[in-house]
Amino acid sequence: MFSQLISQALNIPVKQVEATLNLLDDGCTIPFISRYRKEATGGLDEVQIADIAEQQAKFQELAARKETIVRTIEEQGKMTDDLRKRIDETWSSTELEDIYLPYRPKRRTRAQVAREKGLEPLALFLLGQAQMPRSDMPVNAQVGQYVDAEKGVATTEDALQGAQDIIAEMVAENEEARNTVRRNYEHDAVIESKVVKGKEQEGQNFRDYFDWHERLSRCASHRLLAMRRGEAEGILRLSIAGNEQYCMDRLHRQFVHNGSQAGHLVSDAVVDGYKRLLQPSIATEYAQSSKETADREAIRIFVRNLEQLLMSAPLGQKRVLALDPGFRTGCKVVCLDAEGNLLHHDVIFPHPPKSAFVEAMRIMEDLVKRFQIEAISIGNGTASRETEEFVQGLGLGLPIFVVSEDGASIYSASKVAREEFPDQDVTVRGAVSIGRRLMDPLAELVKIEPDSIGVGQYQKDVNQTELRHSLDLTVQSCVNKVGVNVNTASKHLLTYISGLGPLLAQNIVDYRAEHGAFHSREELKQVNRMGPKAFQQSAGFLRVSGSDNPLDNSAVHPESYWVVEQIAADNGCAVSDLIGDKGEARREAIDWSAYVSDRVGAETLADIRTELAKPGRDPRQQLEEFRFSDEVKQLEDVVAGMVLPGIVTNITNFGAFVDVGVHTKGLVHVSEMSDHFVKDPNSILSLHQHVRVRVKEVDLDRHRLALSLKGVE
After folding, report:
1. What pLDDT digit, counting tens, does each position of 89-120 carry?
2. For the whole model, what pTM was predicted?
3. Which residue has the higher pLDDT, 164 or 687?
4. Which of 41, 44, 487, 629 could form an SS bridge with 517, CB 3.0 to 4.6 Å?
5. From CA 550, how far away is CA 627, in angstroms rounded?
């Protein structure tokens, strides 16, 4: 129904839009469509498919709104053919609401009261006289007939005031007038922020906005959201205003064409209508639309950061010792096997006040040996640098990684953690999470609410429904890009696999517990409620290692196994002979175009060829070891001019935050990223990137650190 509209909105050919909508209506997921239905969609990616789905939802919502509006106007007996035609033809929500405004049920206004007193004909008379090129007709002669004490119109002044109230509302509801003011706001609206008197000390975090104004169209999303937060906390008072004189002049030209008595009365009504009704309405509209724009930008940044965080390089299946550092309460230590299972937990006290250094050293050396530890993971919270220095001094010869603790405490107290470790306290659960984040960030972070893992900006201030929807799509996308081992994946990871969801994820885990490991993808069909559609949508993203069919451990979908088997048969070899390095020569010799058919297209064959070369390849990068400078341990150690190694922990549209190991994240403002203008910080940096930064300024009072990338080798 909306294919043509969506095509125009997104600049995507109608045929591709229609194919995508058909697949979505058929219950296909975005990851599945993007990966396994390229011929149908013309190779649209996940973002384009998600945009099509979003536009479809918006147009469906608008269509439902139209039905409500038509029904309401018909019930009033005011529907005309022209009005219905205008409603049918518009697909702009703003235009639709403007059309509906005069008919929308509203509270009892001054204009409504005047109409009830029978003053609308007088208002129309005045308006008609004012819009003539010239009018000499005396108003008083017309007004007298509307004076009626029983109706509450005791004097001619009462009658004229009522008529002006009606005109004021007509001006405020006039489409042309509203668009005149909108156009001015689009270009000239200014947002102004003032501190609420007496809130100066309490609102120091917002002091940059105590006396601030700028063009609304140029107000960056982070500034708008900061001001909105200050307003919500009662620190700031915001206002949005256009060019009042310009708007008034244009409105007078529209409604007043002469200087007669009627013209002067209408002119006063125009001023009242603008100031009392129209200006506040448009200001509210732009306050809302600017907030929505800022929300979209903040969500875009959050989504981008979350994607980079979830796709962080994994250590892989290694035996890990993880430490959750602390001073007074000690460092919690856990040992994990290569699958992330908890083998042992302990507490050591290498730091003051207890300073049991020798005992801590002995415990660490014993655990490393006893559990054949291959890597060490240290949380980046309190006592992180001191703990890293302690472990480095042990000379264990193992790689040491400092990982983000953001959200670990949220996880450790969650229902998910209680289900996993019902007999352990929150400190052990938190340390386990720190270890697992090193092994596989994606598998661990999906258990935590995205807004608790320390990326993005103003995530608590944006539209939470839109944020949750966008983040869920991002998590789903990342999980399906990587794929999961169906025999080791947690219920929480499986939940995000295309076509599964919580119920089927739990059923897969229950099946494993009862029957043991899956031996093939085909066996997935034995899982309770795993119907044909769920299998179709999920199978390509679920890996079964050790299966008799090597394709079960690849991204080749079972629906395409037949063509790989046909290619192998045509070349007189087994499917396994086409896979990996040993199959390179055979793959190069194949005429892949010969296998293009109605059942399998060229794009699918290209994907199959790529997958056979590196079956089940993890798209994430390799993990690199990192170490902070030994020169600095705390903010007081940092001096302007120093060049320090750091890790990018968060990226916003005004800059990036970098951890240099002093418990205060430094800001590289966008102006300090390059000698050239940088529009998007993400074009320069990525999350978890290792960088070298120069210290520009240290503010001990405000615990702030200004950094620069300029001129750093």
Report:
1. 999 999 999 999 999 988 889 999 999 999 99
2. 0.87
3. 164
4. 487
5. 40
What letter would DSSP give residue 693? E
What's the distance, Cα to Cα, between the start and end of the chain in Å? Answer: 57
- Rounded CA-CA distance 363/356 in Å is 11
Instruction: Give all strands of the β-sheet with 342-348 in edge-to-edge order.
Output: 342-348, 331-336, 320-324, 375-379, 400-403
Structure tokens at 306: 């979350």
The H or E element containing residue 644 is: strand 643-652
- pLDDT above 80 (res 457): no
Alpha helices in 90-139 (DSSP H): 93-100, 110-116, 120-130
The yes-or-no verdict on residue 141 having pLDDT over 90 is no
**Angle CA 490–491–494, to nearest 5:** 90
Q: What is the pLDDT of residue 623?
A: 85
Beta-carbon contacts of residue 427 (< 8 Å; ≥ 6 apart):
324, 329, 332, 412
- Look up residue 139 and give its amino acid: V
556/568 Cα distance (integer angstroms): 15
* Angle (nearest 5°) at CA 453 between 449 and 454: 140
CATH of domain 495-613: 1.10.150.310
Total Cβ atoms within 10 A of residue 645: 16
DSSP assignment letter at 548: S
Can you tell me whether residue 298 is helix, strand or coil? helix
Give per-residue pLDDT as tens, 505-543: 999 999 999 999 999 999 999 999 999 999 999 999 999
Class of domain 110-302: mainly alpha
Q: What's the average model confidence in pLDDT over 371-381?
A: 95
Q: Over the stretch 329-368, which tens digit does the pLDDT of each residue have?
A: 999 999 999 999 999 999 999 999 999 999 999 999 999 9
What pLDDT does 363 receive? 97
Q: Which CATH number fits domain 320-439: 3.90.550.10, 3.30.420.140, 3.40.640.10, 3.30.750.24?
A: 3.30.420.140
CATH code of domain 635-708 = 2.40.50.140
DSSP class per residue in 160-200: HHHHHHHHHHHHHH-HHHHHHHHHHHHHH-EEEEEEPTT-T
CA dist 59 and 511 (Å) reads 42
Q: Report the pLDDT value the prediction gives residue 194, as an integer from 0 to 100.
A: 96
Domain edges within the chain: 3-103, 110-302, 320-439, 495-613, 635-708
DSSP tag of 623: P
State residue 195's pLDDT score.
95
Q: Which of 328, 456, 454 is nearest to 403 (CA)?
A: 454
Count of residues in the chain: 713
Backbone φ, ψ for residue 343 (5° rounding): -100, -35
Q: Under a CB-based contact definition with an 8 Å cutoff, are residues 549 and 560 in contact?
A: no
Before 399, cis peptide (omega within 30)? no
Q: How is residue 153 annotated by DSSP?
A: B
| Residue labelled with tokens 């307003």 | 231
Question: 325, 379 in Cβ contact below 8 A?
Answer: yes
Query: How many other CB atoms sit within 10 Å of the CB of residue 285?
Result: 17
Chain-centroid distance, C-alpha 438: 25
| Residues 149, 157: Cα–Cα separation, whole Å | 12
Number of other residues whose CB lies within 10 A of the CB of residue 671: 12
Say which residue the tokens 């050396």 belong to. 365
Nearest to 406 by CA among 380, 429, 435, 425: 380
Tell me which fold the domain 3-103 belongs to.
Arc Repressor Mutant, subunit A (1.10.10)
Q: What integer pLDDT is reported at residue 286 of this predicted model?
A: 96
